Every structure is written in C-alpha cells, then in structure tokens.
C-alpha cells in the first residue's frame, strides 16, 4: 500500500496542504510594537514651542484590531498630551489652542501608536498707537 501511486499522491497533497496552512499562519502573525508614550517639548523662543507626542490607541480598538479606531484614538491621546503640556507652559493664554498648528502625523504598529508634531507660537502683541494730541 505504501508503494501505491495513490498513496504517494495523497501524501504529497497532504504535506502541501499542511505547509500551505502553516505558511499562512506565519504570515498572519504580526509582532506587536511597544513604544513609550508621552510628549517632549522643545523651546524655540519666547512663547514658541515644538511638541512631539506619542499616543497609544484604546485597548478596545487594539483588541478588535479596528485600524480606523486605533488611528483615531492613538492620535486623540497624543493631542491630549500636547494640550495638557501647553496648559502648563502657557496658563495665562486664554485661546492657546488657536495658535497650535499640527505639522506632522505618523502611525506605528497599524495605527496602535500615533506620533504628532505641533508648533505653538503666540504672535507678538499688537502695538497700539495713541492718537497725537491736537494743539489749539
């Protein structure tokens, strides 16, 4: 029976199927990326800062492997870190978020992590001119 042609064909098909399934399982296995989250600040001048923040996606989006939700929640986490740090640096400025400009956005690990780069620059105060007094 082992020498039969049918047995050899079935063994060949069986081994091929096994390797095909094994290879597909290896291809779908992905390494998880682990990154430090937080925000770093570089002072560029008076009332001018560069923020680079890394946020991590919500646990539910990672468990569901929902790429859209992972990207959304990881970037929201990064932006929250930037705004909290800006609140500490510029507590007197009421409309500070208006002067916060996003420069760059990167994703890591299928969106599980988001890196945002922001520039904050408070414009110089407008000089008010007082009208000259008229001489009579």
Short overview:
The chain has helices spanning 5-28, 59-64, 67-89, and strands at residues 38-45, 48-56, 100-108, 113-121.
Task: Walk me through what this model shows.
This protein is of the alpha+beta class and 136 residues long. It has a domain at 34-121. It is rod-shaped. 39% of the residues lie in helices and 26% in strands. The termini are far apart.
User: What is the straight-line distance between the termini?
Assistant: 126 Å
Order of helices and strands: HEEHHEE
Number of strands: 4
Going by helix content, strand content and strand pairing, the class is alpha+beta
Helix content: 25-40%
Name the beta content range. 25-35%
List unreliable stretches of 5+ residues: none
General form: rod-shaped
Spatial sequence of strands, sheet with the most strands? 1-2-4-3
Oligomerization state of this entry?
Answer: single chain
Please tally the helical runs, counting DSSP H or I stretches of 4 or more residues.
Answer: 3
């Amino acid at each position: 029976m082992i020498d039969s042609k049918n047995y050899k064909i079935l063994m060949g098909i069986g081994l091929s199927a096994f390797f095909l399934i094994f290879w597909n399982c290896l291809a779908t296995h992905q390494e998880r990326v682990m990154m430090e989250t937080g925000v770093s600040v570089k002072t560029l001048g008076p009332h001018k800062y560069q923020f680079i923040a890394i946020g991590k996606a919500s646990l539910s989006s990672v468990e569901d492997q929902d790429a859209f939700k992972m990207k959304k929640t990881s970037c929201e986490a990064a932006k929250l870190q930037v705004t909290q740090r800006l609140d500490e640096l510029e507590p007197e400025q009421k409309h500070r978020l208006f002067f916060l400009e996003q420069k760059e956005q990167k994703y890591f690990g299928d969106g599980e992590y988001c890196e945002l780069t922001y520039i904050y620059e408070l414009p110089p105060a407008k000089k008010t001119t007082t009208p000259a007094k008229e001489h009579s």
